[in-house]
Amino acid sequence: MGEGSTTVLMEKVAEILAEASAEAVEPRFRALAAGEVMEKAPGEVVTVADREAEVIISRRLRELLPVPVVGEEAVAADPALARALLTEPAVWLVDPVDGTSNFAAGKPDYAVMASLVRSGRTVASWIWQPATGTAYAAELGAGAWRNGHRLARPPVTDPAEKWRGILKSRFLEPSEHHRLQSAATVFGRTFGGLSAAGIEYPLVAEGDLEFILYWRTLPWDHSPGSLLVTESGGVSARLDGTPYVPDPPGGPEGLLVAADPATWEHVRTVLAG
Q1: What are the domain boundaries of the chain?
Q2: Which CATH fold would you assign to the domain 160-271?
Q3: Mean pLDDT computed over every residue of the chain
Q4: What is the pLDDT of residues 47-101, one digit of tens each?
Q5: Architecture in CATH for domain 3-150
Q6: Which end of the chain is more exposed for a tag (fewer CB within 10 A), N or C?
Q7: What does the CA dihedral 122, 128, 194, 38 come to, rounded to 10 degrees?
Q8: Which distant-in-sequence residues (6+ apart) come within 8 Å of 186 by Cβ?
């Protein structure tokens, strides 16, 4: 794919997400009717907006590039679809409403996301934040952007006692949760997150956070933001140092995202005890 066609692809996918959001998601924000919010798993909800937006986005992405689509809601109905990440040379990943619990509760911290995976690596990603009209995009080896402006996260210079981070420990055993909370007291401020990866990852890319520790790493949640962070100068890697790749659900757990390599190493050392 040439440079010109790559530019067109980046622009077209951004348009697809914004248009699907305007059609199926935003009109339902704080306007969901009774019966339009369902529980798909214990503690996890889905709305008609998620399902309708995924159908729209998936169809239009396939028209743009005819490869399989691994969408969050489609995989919820048929988990075998996620194996395309391992077996197909190219795959679209789609999260139609990232932060569904926020969206259903009328909170503006939600996003619409997609990424393109080739040979197991994320090569392009898009995050649309409807509440603020903010579009993030990243392309492997080419950079990251916010509303068309290049992102370049400078290395951290503040001491660790001023660092800000997120610890997503919901899926950990209580003893490990308490151990991490205790270890993290050496940092300036840590909190439990904003319940939307599409809101959290940009905070690292833009300098508002120094790190995030995730445990469960569903591919549609983490593929877009991981590329955004790494292309802006940060690191997204498993706790053994292996760079993040979008594995199907049930794959490796634990993911540390940080502003730069030195910050990543220091946070891992501290949290490892």
Answers
A1: 3-150, 160-271
A2: D-Maltodextrin-Binding Protein; domain 2 (3.40.190)
A3: 96
A4: 999 999 999 999 999 999 999 999 999 999 999 999 999 999 999 999 999 999 9
A5: 2-Layer Sandwich (3.30)
A6: C
A7: -100
A8: 160, 161, 270
